[in-house]
Design goal:
It comes from Paspalum notatum var. saurae. By secondary structure, the chain is mainly alpha-helical. It is 65% helix and 2% strand. Helix 7 packs parallel to helix 15 (240-254) and helix 16 packs across helix 18.
Length: 346
């Protein structure tokens, strides 16, 4: 369930484009008497964080037609200087979901700052249909196949799993075959705990060829049959990025909202904030399941996600993120999540 709030009446994308252009050219008068052009950040945030992906696409079309400039380029120039995190978040937000995933993946798989964990998260937390559209977008945007970049920048069993995961079409429905579930659970036991060493091929086969519903059922069956959680088996039998990929698939199969709540918690825990991860999760999940993520976050950490973001960020960056996730309430999934007052901005 999305956390995005939209106007009661469908907004006019042409008027939004006009209003954005005005916001970029607002006259700012300083105390010294100097006047100059600046950016009405509040107006930009109020417009773009309350439009869905289709509406944002239409706004960009209108802006391009009227002002002969890409909205993304204008945002990039307006939010330079001390607005690095906010600019990154906004530029990702205005993309369509497939374009956003493709952009994050390209950045994670290239350059001097490769982030294989981010690439693994994007790939292993997406449905087969999402992956197919994203692969097409990746090629259209960057002129190379995603499989080529995966092959060039990853290795070993991690590489084999990712290539299989983006290449094999999987069933997305809720139905499972109990007989095959039991068979897969036995195969994983034989490939891991029952033998000396690990048969990684079996783990790759089960985790890349089966649906999320099937993988979740296999985990349940494994626990019932061998009195051991499959997650612990993965941790003891595998390591590194291969382990991370398997755990991502398993956790998303069982409860994606819980998985992303944990990722968000880790991004804001301890000294400093991992803005890259915080931005990635917020902008990619706002229109999918952010309400459920908020509920899982509160359930596990006894703190509202918005409250955590409020304390870890500041300025327009904070306002932008809070506009996406919502300023206060977590969705009630049970009687254990109390209703609390909305946050007061600092």
């Amino acid at each position: 369930m999305a956390s995005l709030t939209l106007p009661p009446a469908p907004p006019n994308p042409r008027q939004d484009a006009i209003d954005l252009h005005k916001a970029f050219k607002v006259v700012i008068k300083e105390a010294s008497g100097f006047q100059g052009f600046g950016c009405d950040s509040t107006a930009v945030i109020n417009i773009l964080t309350h439009r869905d992906t289709v509406q944002r696409g239409l706004i960009q079309q209108e802006y391009r037609a009227m002002y002969h400039e890409e909205l993304s380029n204008r945002i990039s120039s307006e939010l330079s200087g001390n607005h690095k995190a906010w600019k990154k978040a906004m530029l990702l937000w205005i993309l369509d979901p497939a374009g956003r995933d493709a952009t994050v993946l390209r950045e994670a798989l290239s350059g001097e700052t490769m982030d294989l964990r981010a690439a693994t998260e994007i790939i292993c937390s997406r449905t087969p249909s999402q992956l197919q559209i994203m692969k097409q977008t990746y090629f259209a945007r960057f002129g190379t196949y995603l499989e080529h970049d995966i092959g060039h920048h990853t290795s070993g069993d991690h590489q084999k799993l990712l290539l299989a995961y983006v290449g094999i079409p999987r069933y997305e429905g809720p139905e499972v075959d109990p007989t095959i579930v039991t068979h897969d659970a036995k195969d994983l036991y034989k490939a891991g705990e029952k033998r000396l060493g690990t048969d990684e091929k079996t783990f790759i086969r089960v985790f890349t060829e089966r649906s999320w519903a099937h993988v979740a059922s296999v985990a349940s069956a494994y626990h019932h049959m061998y009195d051991r959680k499959l997650e612990k088996v993965i941790k003891s039998e595998t390591s590194g990025n291969f382990e991370y990929a398997l755990l991502t698939i398993l956790r998303c199969a069982e409860n994606p909202a819980k998985y992303f709540a944990k990722v968000l918690r880790k991004s804001m825990k301890g000294l400093g904030t991992d803005d890259k991860t915080l931005i990635r999760v917020v902008v990619t999940r706002t229109e999918i399941d952010m309400q459920y993520i908020k509920a899982e976050y509160y359930k596990k950490y006894k703190k509202q996600l918005a409250e955590a973001i409020n304390s870890e960020t500041s300025g327009n960056y904070r306002t932008f993120l809070l506009s996406l996730v919502g300023h206060g309430y977590a969705l009630t999934t049970g009687h254990d999540i109390p209703l609390i007052r909305p946050l007061t901005q600092q």
